[in-house]
Amino acid sequence: MSEQTHSRSGRRRRASTRLAVVAVVLAVVFAGPIASTTMVAAAQSTQDTREIAYGETVSGAVDSVDPVREAPVDNGHTGDFYYEPVSFEGSAGDVVDIELYGPTDTSLVLVGPDGTEVSMNEDGGPGNNSQVVARLPEDGTYTIQVTSHFPEKSYEYLLSLENLTVDEKSSVSIGETRVGVVDDESSESTRFGGAYDEYRFDAEPGDEVEITMHGSVDSALYLIDREGQVVAQEVAPYAGRDVTLEYTVEQERSYRLIVGSGDEDGEFAYVLETRLAGSVDDQTTDEPTSETSGHTDGGGHAPIGPPESSLNLMSNGLDVTSATLGTPVTYSVTVANYGDAAGTFNESVLVNGAEAARFNGTVEPYTKRTMQVTLTPNQTGKHSVGLPNETTETLTIVPPDSPDGNTVSLADGTEMGIKQNTTSGETVPFEFRVRTNGSTLRTVTVNASGSGTMWLEATSTPLGADGPPAEGLSVQHGFALSPSLQSNGTDATTAMTDGTVTIEVNRSALNTSEASVVVYRQSETGDWEPLPTTRVSSTPDNVTYSATTDQFSTVALGTVTPVTSTGSLSTTSMTAGESATVTATVTNSGSAAVDHTVNFEVDGQTVRQQTVTVSPGSEQTVTASISPSAGDHEVTVGGESVGTLTVEQAETPTPTEDSSTPVTTDATETTAGSGPGFGVVVAVLALTAGLLVLGRRRENKP
Fold first, then answer.
1. Phi, psi (deg, nearest 5) at residue 163
2. With 50 as the cut, is the pLDDT of residue 427 above it?
3. DSSP labels for 618-638?
């Protein structure tokens, strides 16, 4: 916290927290002092009347629209003293503590229901501020006159009012506070200036103690040892001045602590505080020091040090003690600044010990400010809520009165699903409407691995440049999924690992084929892994995809090349006239069925085509038979090589000679060709030549 928060008792102990304002002295008129038993001059008509109640602090301003009165104390100043009346309802016997803080040398006057001054004070508070501690004499409406030691016309202030409970204890120890009243039933002694209260005070040898008395009288403190000797004493020089008695305890013994007064009034109320020396920081006095400007008003009042803030946490807490899951609750603080400079209240709000929100606001001098933050706990049960070093409150969050599996909105871009009484092996569906720019998380189904209450938090998360591949898909957000299972009757949780995710994408964000869009999951190492994805619906406005996962983390839409194919040859060599088989395997890694035409090519020329339909996440195998001529041939499928096929030329058969019947021919010798049917032609030509020879022989026979 950039500014220290002080308790009310701490404020009483601070000797100075503000910068004195340079007084602009108005025209002086003579006016007599008002005695404590006289009637207070009637106020002029004004609409600027404020009210205050026990336990409240109000802010206001003394200005020229306020009524005027004579000087509230005989301090040498005369003229018109503007004052602001602040009224409250009191009862006879109430012990009130009225504290006034402002940037000037303040004064307070407490006026009873009958117009009689009950008490007044100038320097009872820290520095030159004022504090009245008084017991009310009757029931009715009391008026606090907020004014000044100077006849000033304008300043802002803070005023607090407390109804103190009088302690009946007759002893006090270090660190304790007592509220008391000295009246006609109290002991009296001229040694202690009249009526007084007495306490037993115990301390350890070596303790350096400080005892402070706050009151509206000439405060007086006396510390008396076992032999009746006064070992330390402090008496205020004038009414309303606090006194602090300091003493180092020499030996273990009980002391008598006398709380009295030097004004012989016989009746007064007081607040008594005890502490070890040094337990309060920045203690100063309101007397001039070498660090002050040295300017006074002639009555010993001087500015003290540079301006500083003094923040006090007046109240803090929740607006409710229970709420339905997903319903925002409000945590508020009211902070008062009793110092001369603006201060910043910078403090975190803890839920179960972890920061869930933070206050960071400026409080102007002598004003109070109420600040609020909104909290939305994301699990049912009892949660501890509060500020550091302050008392916490318990906030109970209950499930929504809606069907199991429903989800509730926790904040912009975050929803929580809850399913009570989940059983092991159950598939739990959650319906979401978490939207991003271009996509919407629709459903998440979780497979329960145990019994209890299933939780699933889904939060929209920006992807940035490290998102999954998404060519042709303008979606910049994903969804962080965190399912867990809370065992029945305990706070133990188990992470869930497998299920399905359904995401809808706007067609305006889809500039690629629907089949190329899939769901990716981010791994523990930050890599994006495509999940088995199916396109479940397609409309003119949106396309919806569903994917299975064996681990929940951040998921997002991305793109892949949906169809790939690979090929192989049944052989890499053969003889001309034989056939080879080419096999093509077509795989669909996309999210929708694809019609794919397979081209079989030999030496870059398509020799066969075949069209197949491939479902998402599956593959199809097709084949083709080829019989190329002799030579080396490059075989490809869809332009991708599957190998080189070598075709050998077929061998030509050699004719068999008959040694008993030689055959001759006059036919012209030709070079035999190759190819189908060549052997039959040779046989026909040989037979024809034989018949011609036989015919000639018959013609020449005698």
1. -105, 110
2. yes
3. -EEEEEEEE---SEEEEEEET
Q: How far apart are CA 333 and CA 435, in angstroms?
A: 34
The pair of three-digit structure tokens given for residue 360, joined into one six-digit string = 């960071």
Q: Is the pLDDT of residue 678 over 70?
A: no
Pick from 617, 1, 541: nearest CA to 311: 1
Beta bridge partners of 130: 100
Inter-residue contact 622 to 586 (CB < 8 Å): yes
| Token pair listed for 89 | 């309802």
Please give the structure tokens belonging to residue 280. 């309060």
291-326, pLDDT tens digit by residue?
Answer: 333 333 434 444 455 678 889 898 899 999 999 888
Distance (Å, whole) CA 489 – CA 487: 6
Give the per-residue pLDDT at 580.
Answer: 95
DSSP tally for the chain: helices H, then strands E: 2, 50
Count of CB atoms situated within 10 Å of the CB of 49: 13
Q: Please report which helix (H) or strand (E) contains residue 699, including its range.
A: helix 678-699
What separation in angstroms does the CA of 213 have from each of 105, 261, 283, 393? Answer: 20, 10, 15, 34
User: Quick one: what percent of the chain has pLDDT higher than 70?
Assistant: 77
For residues 669 and 682, give the distance between their C-alpha atoms in angstroms, rounded to a whole number: 11
Give the CA angle between residues 503, 509, 514 to the nearest 5°: 65
- Pick 223 or 7 by higher pLDDT: 223
Place of tokens 């008026």: 143
Secondary structure letter of residue 193 according to DSSP: T
Q: Which of 478, 464, 466, 469 is nearest to 560 (CA)?
A: 469
- Residues 536 and 602: beta-carbon distance below 8 Å: no
Q: Beta 605-614 vs 573-575: how paired, if at all? A: unpaired
Which helix (H) or strand (E) segment is 10 a member of?
helix 8-13
**DSSP code at position 592:** S
Q: For residue 263, what pLDDT band results from cuts at 50, 70 and 90?
A: low
The C-alpha atoms of residue 478 and residue 469 are separated, in whole angstroms, by 13
Is the distance from CB of 582 to CB of 607 less than 8 angstroms? no
Whether the pLDDT of residue 655 is over 80: the answer is: no
Dihedral of CA atoms 461, 462, 465, 466 in degrees, nearest 10, equals: 0
pLDDT number for residue 652: 72
Q: Between the CA of residue 437 and those of 301, 464, 505, 661, what are the distances in Å?
A: 66, 13, 9, 98
- Give kind and range of the element (H or E) at residue 300: none
| pLDDT of 338 over the 60 cut | yes
Sign of the dihedral defined by the CA atoms of residues 556, 557, 561, 565, in that order = positive
Distance CA 436, CA 99 (A): 54
Q: How many CB atoms lie within 10 A of CB 343?
A: 24
Residues in the chain: 702
CA–CA–CA angle 528, 533, 539 (5° rounding): 120
- Within a 10 A sphere around the Cβ of 508, how many other Cβ atoms? 10
665, 686 contact by CB (below 8 A): yes
Among 24-33, 268-277, 486-495, 512-521, the range scoring the smallest mean pLDDT is 24-33
Find the mean pLDDT for residues 471-477.
92
Q: Tokens standing for 644?
A: 């080189």
- Taking the C-alpha atoms of residue 448 and residue 446, their distance in angstroms, rounded to an integer, is 6
Which whole-number Å values give the CA distances from 561 to 44, 467, 470, 513, 614, in the listed order? 89, 17, 11, 10, 14
pLDDT of residue 497: 83
Cβ–Cβ under 8 Å, residues 146 and 82? no
**62 φ, ψ (degrees, to nearest 5):** -90, 125
Strand order in the sheet with 393-398: 322-324, 393-398, 381-386, 343-351, 354-363
Res 24: pLDDT: 29
